């Protein structure tokens, strides 16, 4: 929609530290973003200012330095590790005579390349259009004229107004289609809730190893790579866990610091798998130097989408990159697993993760010795059929003692099917 040079493969990266800003972007992370976008970073321009310039974001001297770097490296695009206003972006483009993108533009470009499903492509297009709508004013200045010709004379509609209208109509259309996707997802979630199937959702900072772990657990082939935003489209797989039964595991898009709000909004249909989850697995790259900051960013996004109340199990991944570190489970004062250390690449600690998930999901599992009489034959048969009987002992009196282990809700369902009441069931005094 913009008459500007196509984005090339060679980029000058600009990173400025502002003393007035408490939180600064990470230049190394931005270099990874640039590489993930398939662009070669041929030069890095850094500097420091008290605050951004309203017109050009950087000072005249720094702009000259960027211009020299573009000429020296024959760069096609300048990428800023910051959020630029539409006017700043346009002013810098006019001065440098080349394409300029800010941090949000780079992230949107990566998302556009990675989206695979129809839903993912719709979400990316929505985010792009909403980002573009703020830039139309300076994108179409050369077309600020009215339509003419026979039958079209008069006030008419400027080209800019036409494009705004077309954008609004397309955005409205995508919202409708995504709403349909959201309804379909809700139907699937309601069906799982009716069947009492828990959902475990993987969340975490981008490139923490979510998809690698997902593939290891489910033996599926979700795209996984050592790059930012390798996964955009949610993937669901069904697992069978002891004591729990069927569980749905969901792999989701990774988070990043200062993730553009429009992207969070666009991917809300995807992120609802996180909001509605029974348990979140927060995957953390334990080898990353900014591990704690990344964890805070994920928690901020979870709070933004309303998932901060969902129970969380932290999974510290990539222990194979640490020296002499063995997998382990850490527990809180109540003995509940809160942190698992593992390697998704080597498989070390995966069994510990399964055990921890089962413990967190099976907080209502009962383990008891039940005393059944001859009249309780149907309940005995149902318990055997459900695979919940650990041991069985027959007494001379004709009674049977069953050692049973199952979820409390399943216990109540089996009692109901057998036509029995919980108050009628005798428990053996021994410890389970």
What does this entry look like structurally?
With 432 residues, this protein is α/β, with parallel strands linked by helices. It folds into three domains: 10-101, GTPase HflX, N-terminal domain (Rossmann fold, 3-Layer(aba) Sandwich); 196-362, 3-Layer(aba) Sandwich (Rossmann fold), CATH 3.40.50.300; 365-427, Alpha-Beta Plaits, CATH 3.30.70. It has 14 helices and 15 strands. It has a seven-stranded mixed sheet, sandwiched between helices. Strand 8, helix 11 and strand 9 form a beta-alpha-beta unit. It is elongated.
Topology (SSEs and partners):
Blueprint (H helix, E strand, L loop, with lengths): L9 E9 L8 H10 L3 E10 L10 H14 L3 E4 L5 H11 L2 E3 L1 H12 L3 H16 L2 H4 L19 H36 L4 E6 L5 H9 L16 E7 L3 E7 L9 H6 L1 H8 L3 E7 L5 H14 L7 E6 L10 E4 L5 E5 L8 H12 L3 E8 L4 H9 L3 E6 L5 E8 H11 L7 E2 L5
Parallel strand pairs: 1-2, 1-3, 3-4, 5-7, 5-8, 8-9, 9-11
Antiparallel strand pairs: 6-7, 10-11, 12-14, 12-15, 13-14
Helix pairs in contact: 1-4, 4-5, 5-7, 7-10, 13-14
Task: Based on the model shown, name its key terms.
alpha/beta, Rossmann fold, Alpha-Beta Plaits, seven-stranded mixed beta sheet, four-stranded parallel beta sheet, 15 strands, disordered N terminus, guanosine tetraphosphate binding, magnesium
CATH structural fold name of the largest domain: Rossmann fold
Please give the number of β-strands: 15
Our measurement of the CA-to-CA distance between the termini, rounded to an integer number of angstroms, reads: 70 Å
Count up the domains.
3
User: Which architecture name of the largest domain does CATH use?
Assistant: 3-Layer(aba) Sandwich
Radius of gyration using CA atoms only: 29 Å
Largest sheet entry: 7 strands, mixed
Q: In terms of structural class, how would the helical and strand content be classed? A: alpha/beta
Function: GTPase that associates with the 50S ribosomal subunit and may have a role during protein synthesis or ribosome biogenesis.
Subunit structure: Monomer. Associates with the 50S ribosomal subunit.
Binding site for GTP: 204-211, 229-233, 251-254, 317-320
Family: Belongs to the TRAFAC class OBG-HflX-like GTPase superfamily. HflX GTPase family.
